[in-house]
Design brief:
Blueprint lengths: L96 H6 L3 H30 L3 H35 L3 H38 L15 H46 L5 H17 L1 H20 L6 E3 H19 L3 E7 L8 E3 L4 H10 L8 E10 L2 E8 L14 H12 L3 E6 L5 E7 L5
Helix pairs in contact: 2-3, 3-4, 3-5, 4-5, 5-10, 6-7, 7-8
């Protein structure tokens, strides 16, 4: 399907894995719910295209136009959005030299030929005068060539300095590009005429008189003054164009980096949402069954458990703090509420305590629900398997610039290979997304069974 016109087509919910839409027009196309894993959409027009709930894992959308694209709930893990644009796909003011050179058709070839010819012409002129100065034996010609080379170098310096100075002023006070080039042309032409006259009066008069006397019939002596202005004018306009194109390219790259950063943030947010701990449905099921059994046996305990369960759900749904962070104080309150509910269910078989080394630590922000899954595992894989009383200790302390969040229990030791059921992998992923290498999780059986989450103090706001 390369280089195809597929505007407005409906590909919703289709399996398009590994499909190749490169260089195609896909404006207004519907890819809702489609499988586009590893699909190629390079150099494509994707304006007004919808990718809602689609799978773009490892898809390549580089160098494509993405004006008003809908990526709601799309999976973009590993997708390549390099050098994509969210601006209009074509504008005359965007027609630039780099774009023309990238054109593989006759336009790009013609521009490359012209630039190549001008470059070689200029290089040959430089080599010619340099060779003439070194190898010419006639002193009048050598003196003239030296004068011309020095005049050209100084004229180039004046032209570049003027262009640099005018660039900043014009970019501030003028908007129209043609007007900028016109002003630049006039200023450079007038300045070089004045410079040329001054330089000629001081250094060139005798040289040109001597040359005219010795070679009176050479046609080059009859060239009008304006003929020599095309060089500085061309250099000034080319320099300004290249400088402006470079600024636009830098701005576009910065915009791209910003867009990619936003996409990365969206991707991270989606991953965090997926990893965000929710109340285990089995826990809810067990709690409701316990409440039902206590209604007749012990109504007070049933009421207590119902209130605790309500408090727990308020924490999970009603907090106004950051989406992914809360204070240690609030996190421990939620953990204690959870343990109190489980204590109603387990009775004297469950004992627990919560310890914070310093009161100042209570206001530090840590990831939400980072402790509750570990405590839940301690009950599920520890206390529930013991005939005697189980004991869970949640301990928060700081040591060597690391904040430690520890959960001890006296249940069976951790096996050699931890299974996915322990939830450790999800916590590792969350810590990696939020802190990178500045956080870790460790499991120990000695001296006591412990799950220890360590976060570098500098990473905590």
């Amino acid at each position: 399907m390369q280089a195809s016109s597929l505007d407005g087509r409906d590909f919703s919910n289709m399996n398009l894995e590994n499909a190749d839409f490169s260089f195609s027009s896909l404006k207004g196309t519907n890819f809702d719910g489609a499988n586009l894993r590893n699909a190629k959409m390079r150099f494509s027009a994707l304006d007004q295209t919808t990718f809602r709930n689609s799978d773009l894992t490892n898809a390549d959308l580089s160098f494509s136009s993405l004006l008003n694209v809908d990526l709601t709930d799309a999976k973009v893990e590993g997708a390549n959005f390099s050098y994509t644009s969210n601006e209009r796909s074509f504008r005359w003011q965007d027609l630039n030299l780099i774009g023309m050179l990238q054109n593989q058709g006759w336009v790009g070839t013609a521009v490359a030929i012209i630039l190549g010819a001008l470059f070689l012409y200029g290089m040959n002129a430089i080599l010619f005068f340099s060779a003439a100065i070194f190898y010419e034996e006639e002193p009048v010609r050598v003196t003239l060539y030296q004068y011309l080379v020095l005049n050209g170098v100084l004229s180039g310096i004046v032209t570049i300095l003027l262009t640099q100075g005018l660039t900043q002023l014009m970019d501030v006070f003028m908007k129209r590009l043609w007007l900028k080039h016109l002003i630049l042309t006039i200023v450079v032409a007038v300045s070089n005429i004045l410079f040329g006259l001054i330089f000629f009066n001081y250094f060139g008069t005798e040289i040109f008189i001597a040359y005219g006397n010795r070679y009176p019939d050479e046609a080059a002596q009859n060239a009008p003054l304006y003929w020599y202005m095309w060089g500085p004018i061309s250099v000034a306009n080319a320099f300004y164009y290249i400088r402006r194109a470079g600024q636009q390219l830098s701005r576009k790259i910065s915009d791209q980096e910003y867009q990619l950063l936003n996409l990365e943030k969206l991707k991270t947010r989606a991953e965090l949402d997926a990893l965000q701990a929710r109340i285990n449905p089995h826990f809810l099921y067990n709690s409701l069954n316990s409440i039902a059994s206590l209604v007749h046996e012990d109504p007070d305990k049933a009421e207590e458990m119902t209130l605790l369960l309500s408090k727990l759900f308020r924490y999970t749904t009603g907090r106004k703090t950051s989406d992914y962070f809360d204070t240690i104080e609030n996190e421990l309150e939620m953990v204690e509420t959870y343990l109190q509910i489980e204590k109603v269910r387990f009775g004297s078989r469950l004992q627990f305590s919560v310890e914070v080394q310093e009161t100042g630590l209570s206001q530090l922000l840590i990831p939400k629900f980072i402790l509750q899954p570990i405590v839940e595992n301690a009950i599920k894989h520890g206390v529930s398997r013991m005939a005697e009383a189980g004991n869970i200790v949640v301990k928060i302390y700081e040591e060597n610039n690391w904040l430690h969040l520890c959960v001890h229990d006296n249940g069976p030791a951790f096996p050699e290979t931890m299974g996915a059921g322990y939830g450790i992998k999800s916590i590792q992923d969350k810590l990696k997304l939020l802190y990178g290498d500045l956080a870790r999780i460790e499991l120990h059986n000695e001296p006591v069974k412990t799950v220890n989450i360590g976060i570098q103090r500098s990473a905590i706001g």
